[in-house]
């Protein structure tokens, strides 16, 4: 979709020789446009819910809330948190999970730790190799790769080999990576402000337990109570991540113009649904008009945006 968007933007700009936008500038504008549309999903969702409550929203094909929910759900991710220190766990970031989070929708805790160790040299995919699994681990338990923070369900158990539903320990690259195994029972942790977490913990009546855990959010981590929840990989979250930065890539120049090449290693398409292609074009034109100091381009894009919002 990114090449289609760029071609449309350039067609508008070149119609009256408004100017040229370099690939670097286009990628910057594309990133900002995608972020703006992504963040608008949440305000649009709130508006749509209010319309439903006021009974001025449609159903079936006219159910706008469902479409917005589906767009948001494409960014929904479930990941385990990397342990920072004891009962503190690092929130999703480029360094830990490979993406930044927009919203921690749910923070959950596995309450029963079964076994931890290091995966051995596994020649087969969908397996883990270690010793002492028999009598400790059962089919249906959860295995967590503490390096990639991926989790999966155990499908078969022997004393030295576990079969997995997902290939979270691929042969060679998954060798010698640490793991944790938990019972599948998990409980959602309640979010508590930092000003109240200590008071909550010291109360005999409201102190968090394994079945009613709580957490407070810090700059780059969550602190989980009770403190008995302190094993690597024991905390995981369903969160909404930010979309990846789009990047239009090229490899050669023809007639002085870059030629699109999506085979480049750093190529990244837009992650928004194709229904947002028009919005992307409009917003990139707005940024482009400002960059080339062409008021007519900005006015055209603003007018198109107003028309789109009225629909």
Instruction: Please state roughly what percent of the residues sit in beta strands, choosing from under 5%, 5-15%, 15-25%, 25-35%, 35-45% or over 45%.
Output: 25-35%
Radius of gyration, in angstroms, nearest whole number? 25 Å
- Please describe the biggest sheet, giving its number of strands, its sense, and whether it closes into a barrel: 6 strands, antiparallel
Order of helices and strands: HHHEEEEEEEEEEEEHEEEEEHH
Contiguous low-pLDDT stretches (5 residues minimum) are none
What is the terminal separation in angstroms?
23 Å
The dominant shape is globular
| Strand order across the largest sheet | 5-10-7-8-9-6
Mean pLDDT: 87
Output the number of helix runs: 6
Q: What structural class do helix, strand and pairing data support? A: alpha+beta
């Amino acid at each position: 979709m990114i090449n289609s968007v760029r071609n449309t933007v350039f067609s508008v700009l070149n119609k009256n020789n408004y100017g040229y936008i370099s690939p670097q500038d286009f990628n910057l504008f594309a990133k900002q446009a995608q972020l703006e549309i992504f963040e608008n999903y949440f305000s649009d969702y709130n508006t749509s819910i209010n319309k439903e409550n006021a009974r001025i929203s449609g159903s079936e094909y006219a159910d706008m809330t469902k479409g917005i929910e589906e767009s948001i759900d494409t960014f929904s991710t479930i990941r385990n948190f990397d342990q920072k220190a004891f009962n503190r766990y690092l929130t999703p970031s480029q360094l830990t999970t490979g993406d930044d989070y927009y919203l921690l929708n749910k923070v959950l805790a596995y309450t029963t730790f079964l076994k931890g160790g290091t995966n051995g040299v596994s020649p087969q995919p969908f397996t883990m190799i270690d010793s002492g699994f028999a009598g400790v681990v059962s089919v249906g338990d959860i295995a967590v790769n503490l390096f990639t923070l991926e989790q999966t369900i155990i499908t078969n158990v022997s004393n030295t080999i576990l079969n997995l539903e997902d290939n979270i320990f691929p042969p060679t690259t998954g060798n010698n990576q640490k793991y944790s195994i938990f019972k599948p029972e998990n409980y959602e942790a309640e979010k508590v402000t930092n000003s109240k977490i200590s008071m909550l913990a010291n109360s005999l009546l409201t102190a968090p337990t394994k079945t009613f855990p709580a957490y407070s959010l810090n700059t780059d981590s969550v602190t989980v109570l009770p403190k008995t929840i302190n094993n690597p990989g024991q905390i995981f979250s369903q969160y909404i991540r930010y979309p990846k930065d789009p990047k239009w890539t090229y490899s050669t120049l023809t007639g002085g113009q870059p030629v699109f090449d999506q085979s480049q290693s750093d190529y990244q398409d837009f992650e928004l649904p194709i229904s947002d292609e028009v919005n992307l074009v409009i917003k990139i034109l707005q940024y482009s008009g400002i960059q080339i100091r062409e008021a007519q381009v900005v006015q055209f894009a603003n007018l198109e945006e107003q028309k789109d919002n009225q629909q």
